[in-house]
Design a protein that fits this description.
It comes from Capra hircus (Goat). InterPro entries: Ig-like_fold (IPR013783). This is V-kit Hardy-Zuckerman 4 feline sarcoma viral oncogene-like protein. The chain is mainly β and 38 residues long. It has one domain. 0% of the residues lie in helices and 42% in strands. The chain has no helices and two strands. The chain has a two-stranded antiparallel sheet with strand order 1-2. Strand 1 and strand 2 form a beta hairpin. The two termini are 21 Å apart.
């Protein structure tokens, strides 16, 4: 499947690879994704 997130204040220089980390008392998880700026 495909998801889209529209970030209206993102600058052209802010594209790249990002990693989102989350954790709680039970689990730690992360996901890495690419941001393409058009």
């Amino acid at each position: 499947y495909v998801n889209e997130l529209h970030l209206t204040r993102l600058k052209g220089t802010e594209g790249g690879t990002y990693t989102f980390h989350v954790s709680n008392s039970d689990v730690n998880s992360s996901v890495t994704f690419n941001v393409n700026v058009n």
